[in-house]
Amino acid sequence: MSDVDHLIIGSGINALVAAAMLARKGDSVLVVEREDRIGGCMMTEEITLPGFHHDVMAATFVLFLTGPAHEALGADLAEHGLEFCHSPHPTAALRPNGQALRLEMNRAANVAAFNKRAPGDGDQHAADVGAIEADAEFLFALLGQPLWSRQSAWLLAKQAWKRGVGPLKAWFGEALEPGRAWLETRYESEDVQALWAPWVLHVGLTPEASYGGQMSRVIAFALEAAGAPVVKGGAGQMAAAFERLITAKGGEIRTGIEAQRVLVENGTAMGIETATGETIRAKNIIASVAPGQLYEGLLKEQPRPQTRREFRHGRGNFQLHYALDAAPEWVADGLDDIALIHLADGVDAVSRSCNEAERGLLPAVPTICVGQPHRLDPGRCPEGKAVLWLQIPDAPRVIKGDAAGEIETTADWTEATREAFADRVEDILRQSIRNFDAIKLARRAYSPTDLAGLNVNLVGGDPYGGACALDQFFLWRPFADQNNYATPIKGLHHIGASTHPGPGLGGGSGLNLARQLGG
């Protein structure tokens, strides 16, 4: 006899979405989490100084706010305390020459600003985001729902009937365009190119990767329409709201419980055994884990699925956090209330930094994303102070050297290497903020190894659940022979960033599976 209907391993965004949907349905749900907190990458702590609240990993929630999981659960989560904070200026790029360009949540303003940088660039922006808007129903269904399904086949059939087979083929061909090709063939202004070039890194791609252009256009549309919201009180409050919702609907969450293996009888998952020897039985086991955790850990006693390749993980992530004594004075005007600022010099600079990282080198000039959460949510720090959230999305998982030839390295991220690389990032930041040295109070750095220590699913510090190259994305994520969220074991389901629709904070795989199970 089963103890619960659904036992969920892990407590990241997809696990929590699945748990909330299934508990709300009335099924019995148990979430087990090996750490002493829930939330996966949603974690807010006072890591620099008392009173300064930092999102240690995930920070902005535009993919959740614009996705079907929020449509399904947003009202319930709001009742349990979830609140978002916004800025009308979601993102900007600041180049080394001091030139800056920001995005407004106003298309007409963006068209005018882009056309001012280069005639026609604003009109091109309107065409690009307008095309995403026109295709939104088809595109977001394609990106969000299970692909190997009757509903996806029907969706494609309807589009082929509506557009014609030839135009649909052309649509998919354009959708596979790399980010570099999109920017260099559509936009003349280097400032506009610099605004969008770094965003492919946030979906685990590079400027030269297939479908990077389409994903960049989707991001441009989402940012312009919904901004770059943060959770009031920090990302950890998102996890707290989910916990209140799940428990209010009768679900249970247990922390400090490590699932050691899935119990299998006659090819069917019957439950789990924990690291302490406890047995928990369930009708369905839902594993929100990386493929290695599933097949080499939880199922290590079972025959491994036949596949012609190993699942690959992508670049690591480097995080840097600052407590500041006052608001930063940026070297360019108009950046005070920007949610996310990229310090980058365009397509070539972004390409160079991520290429160095993929070859195992510390980038000589890393691409830097700077968040100013205190501008959206003043309660993150004492009055008159400030916090900065820095993400460097192109750090090597295994170090082979330093592209600049300045930092002594070993294969591993040591404390000395981490702080030396943090110094490099800080030097770039210092050049961007006039009063930086006068207002800096404290900093805290996290290497890819540190992040992996905080969340076992961030293998090597990869925050995207695995490389997002075309051969292990869409229908082929995590493996070409896996159908949606099924595994070779009956009753065992696999969700998370390593499954479709991939990384981010949308909660798509958790929602899709919950609906498949009747939630």
Features:
7-stranded mixed β-sheet; single chain; globular; 20 strands; 519 residues; alpha/beta
The value of Rg in angstroms is 22 Å
Beta content: 15-25%
Provide the helix percentage: 25-40%
Q: Roughly what is the average pLDDT, rounded to an integer?
A: 95
Present the secondary structure layout:
Blueprint: E1 4-9, H1 13-25, E2 29-33, E3 44-45, E4 54-55, H2 62-65, H3 68-79, E5 84-85, E6 91-94, E7 100-103, H4 107-117, H5 121-134, H6 136-144, H7 150-163, H8 165-175, H9 179-186, H10 190-196, H11 212-226, E8 230-231, H12 236-248, E9 252-255, E10 259-265, E11 268-274, E12 279-288, H13 291-298, E13 316-324, E14 340-343, H14 347-358, E15 361-362, E16 368-371, H15 373-376, E17 386-395, E18 401-402, H16 415-432, H17 436-439, E19 440-446, H18 448-454, E20 492-495, H19 508-516
Parallel strand pairs: 1-2, 1-12, 2-9, 6-14, 12-20, 15-18
Antiparallel strand pairs: 3-4, 5-8, 6-7, 10-11, 11-12, 13-17, 13-19, 14-16, 16-17
Helix pairs in contact: 1-12, 1-19, 3-12, 4-5, 5-11, 7-8, 9-11
